Amino acid sequence: MSVLGTLLDEGVVIVRSLLNPMDVEMLHSCLDALRAEGVPTTQQVLYTHELPSSPRPGFERLFEQWFNPHNRHGLGSTRLLLDRLGARLAVELTDELFAFQDVLLSKHAGHAALPWHQDQPFWPIETPWAAVVWCALDPVQLERGGVEFAIGSHRQLGPAIDLHTGEPQRADAAMPFESSAFEICCPVLVPGDAVIFHGRMWHRSGINHVGLPRRAWISTWLPPEARWSPALAPRHPRSRSVVAGTLVHLARKPS
């Protein structure tokens, strides 16, 4: 089965050496530059549906993360690497995908576990599928806070999750997912390996018990038929400026 076929059927596929050693070193340098320049990290989980009824800690409880570094100029920018990755995905998956967003992050020993969630419910987008490309910049295994996936759990779009509590953001939303119903896998990766997973794949990550950083570069790629749908994530920043039903690729500015 092709990489795309496996992604659509099982929800996740591992691609070894998607990044070469030079790419990995460049991404390490991007992270170092963002820190050295004092670029602010992500400060809060994105509440795309309802604000929590009680205060929540900052996003730094979960990760050290920079959102959309490809929009930067000069040091710390991932733009060149994102373009290179797009060319590789055209061979591995399909040549019609376009980049929606990317993040650079590091999970340290002091960071909390990330609960089970899907990525797509956070987006104001209607799309039949999306590819999230999770590239390892350090060795990754379960003990180092590796990502766990529930194989085949991408068949249904669930609610946006409060990443501090693991509960749906909307008080009236039901949790349609129970991890015990699925086979769970946690890929062991070396720097440059990637896990490509469906935007509706349920996944989580535990605590980094090793004490060494677990750095990653994650990008999201959409097919050309993806359309804006603000009602799906009404509090998302882009929901205030996009027109429902229009094609996302016609407004290439990432969210």
Helices, strands, pairings?
Blueprint: H1 3-10, E1 12-15, H2 21-36, E2 64-67, H3 79-92, E3 98-107, E4 114-117, E5 125-126, E6 131-136, E7 147-150, E8 184-185, E9 194-198, E10 203-205, E11 214-222, E12 227-228
Antiparallel strand pairs: 1-9, 2-3, 3-11, 4-10, 5-12, 6-9, 6-11, 7-8, 7-10
Description:
By secondary structure, the chain is of the alpha+beta class. It is 15% helix and 22% strand. It is built from 3 helices and 12 strands; from the N terminus they run H-E-H-E-H-E-E-E-E-E-E-E-E-E-E. The strands form 3 sheets. Strands 1-9-6-11-3-2 form a 6-stranded antiparallel β-sheet, with helices on one face. A 4-stranded antiparallel β-sheet has the order 4-10-7-8, with no helix packed on it. The chain is globular.
Short description:
This protein is α+β, with helices and mostly antiparallel strands. Helix content is 15%, strand content 22%. It has helices at residues 3-10, 21-36, 79-92; strands spanning 12-15, 64-67, 98-107, 114-117, 125-126, 131-136, 147-150, 184-185, 194-198, 203-205, 214-222, 227-228.
Kindly state the mean pLDDT as a whole number?
95
Assembly annotation: single chain
Strand order in space, largest sheet: 1-9-6-11-3-2
What pattern of helices and strands is seen along the backbone? HEHEHEEEEEEEEEE
Helix content: 10-25%
Structural class: alpha+beta
Low-confidence stretches: none
Largest sheet: 6 strands, antiparallel
Overall number of strands? 12
Count of runs of 4 or more consecutive helical residues: 3
Structural shape: globular
| Residue share in β-strands | 15-25%
Rg, Å, rounded? 17 Å
Give the N-terminus to C-terminus distance in angstroms.
32 Å
